[in-house]
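Predict the holo structure. Ligand: pyridoxal-5'-phosphate.
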Amino acid sequence: MRGFAAAPQPVEDADHGGSSGGSSMIEKKGITLRGVPLYLDMQATTPMDPRVIDAMLPFMTEQFGNPHSRTHLYGWESEEAVEDARAKIARLIGADPKEIIFTSGATESNNTAIKGVAMYYKDKKRHVITTQTEHKCVLDSCRWLQQRGWDVTYLPVRPDGMLDMSVLEAAIRPDTALVSVMAVNNEIGVVQPISEIGALCRSKGVFFHTDGAQAVGKLPLDVNASKIDLLSLSGHKIYGPKGVGALYVRRRPRVRMEPLMSGGGQERGLRSGTVPTPLVVGLGAACEVAARDMQSDLAHVRRLEERLRTGITSQLQGVMLNGPSDLALRYPGNLNLSFAYVEGESLIMGLKEIAVSSGSACTSASLEPSYVLRALGVEEELAHTSIRYGMGRFTTDAEVDRAIDMTVSHVNKLREMSPLWEMVQEGVDIKSIQWAQH
Amino acid sequence: MAAANEARTLFRALLREGKRFPNYNLRDFIQRRAKESFRESAGVTDPSAVQSLLKRGREELELVKRQSTVYGLYGRKFKNVLELDLKFKPNTPAASSA
Ligand SMILES: Cc1ncc(COP(=O)(O)O)c(C=O)c1O
């Protein structure tokens, strides 16, 4: 948008801490920023859609009733809103509203699905299968089971992040209770073959759980077409509120599970606790909007991804894509690139005007590279320089163009200072050098 | 046709309100989405479908106005770096323009 980006509107002088330049500086964590960074981290979280906020506000003001109150208007109107939201979530994933349970987010949904199913069937089935690239909350729930005597298989994935169906098939045993494979990976955007996994699991009589936090509302997904038995989703990944999510639990064939929460028996006894009406209404609105805008959103992020990827790779050498290059196998709103011959931490520091994530946990003391990239076999050096660009419904062309400019100029600047890069330019094969020390 | 006139009026009002939205990303989104919706609905002739599209258009215009107020009250006092940097020139100017 020329009118907004190339020739911005005059900047209003901030009413606090204004400085001479007409704009004020933001200081946080020892870093000084001229303005608010561009947000390209949509896998971490998304802003709420104004249509979501609009739906929530009545339930944050006068319609505050407890949806479980049976004796007055306050309860009735809240209950009606909660059931309306439940129906909207069900519609987005092709489920029946009775199969939707509200939770506090995908972390709780994943914990409930994995631990709940494993515990219910523990007398006959003591084996669970997942992959090495799942979200921490899935891996940790499996770890929890392992510490209590279950067997867990953590399947490797191919270098592009895809799960090999033959590897999965070989891992299924007569005592396997559950297979848990995420639909879309949060770091590299790889889309797993959910329908094939569902069909295989159904044929073997094994329940199939998928963590759909990064997939629901962004890609078409149908629990019946894909034979999914349990599905986790999260509000804040789909332009809804934080602190709310849902778990789909199939009724036919029936999936049984033990609840993790004891209490008033809300949500069919599977998740006790007062349902948070405003959050649930927000989640419902987010799902309704996602269903309506899905094609438009997808076309938008596809266009932006192409612009970003070609913008960077046409100007820089030594850029590696983490994840599948085939866009049928990757959610385009997620572009994860590694830059050879630069230092990861310096790169992230140089990009402080764009909010992106890095594959290197350089803010923590450990300096451990991402376990997802490690599972793909990405070299440590490259894992440290990986940047995840996350685009979505509200990302603009101008933001992508700015991200290209910033990335290209900082990578070039860092490489100019790098003796390794100089050698590469002179034609020395770095890999052939015998390093004295590692 | 009265419906076509109302659709055009709604479209222009949405663009106008969208331009005033206090948030940079939403200003851009509202323009883009309004144009897409308007284009998509251009081929709709079924009277009841036209009426429901108009109803949605009216509701969305009111929603944009309400949320514009909410963002005006609770939005950031700091601007996005893109809006601040007058020197910034995109590689290739963004295609669409209001
Ligand atoms: C794939 C995946 N699963 C689970 C989660 C956790 O979701 P929540 O923040 O709703 O607990 C996230 C987000 O961090 C995610 O990306």
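Chain A touches chain B through 46 residues (CB under 8 Å). Residues A 105-107, 135, 137, 182, 186, 211, 213-214, 234, 245 surround pyridoxal-5'-phosphate (CB under 6 Å).
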